[in-house]
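#structure-requests
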Amino acid sequence: MKNMDKTIKHYKNHRTLYFAIGSTLVFFFYLTLALVPASRCFKLDFGLNSLGLSFSYTIDMVQSFFGARTQDQLLCYSQFLQMWDPIFALTSTMMFGSWIVCLFKNKRLLLLAPTILGMIADWSENYIELLMIETYLNSNTISETLVSLGSGMNSLKFTTTGLTYLIILTGIILTLKRFITKPKL
């Protein structure tokens, strides 16, 4: 009974760490087993393979991206933006958020804001890209306003991701500092 109580106490003391490790595994399995295979139907051997992978984009980049693909590839990219990429944003937010909670011991929950804002920016960018694809497929034109909005959301996504990395790095440094300076018993 004593060992069981000890095990339960250990788990309760480390559950955010276990959740962070678990969410990291989910993220990497999703990335390798679902996201990458789902993107193959619109991937080319040259050039940009997703508008969301550049810090920002111009109307020329979008026209080149759409023009280099067949209608089937653009429809596949559209499905990717509707289904696979939003799940990626959710799993990465879960992973980064759980590490922030773990590293800052649930005391700085406001530090989750950039991670959540990045997910919302990613979802918004996907929606705008879907509008651009629809417009392009229907009229072979692309709205400069939509490109500007999508590029802005993309830049916001990358900025918040950078901020998230900085927060996690700070948490790691503070955790290491606490561990190193902790008095030895």
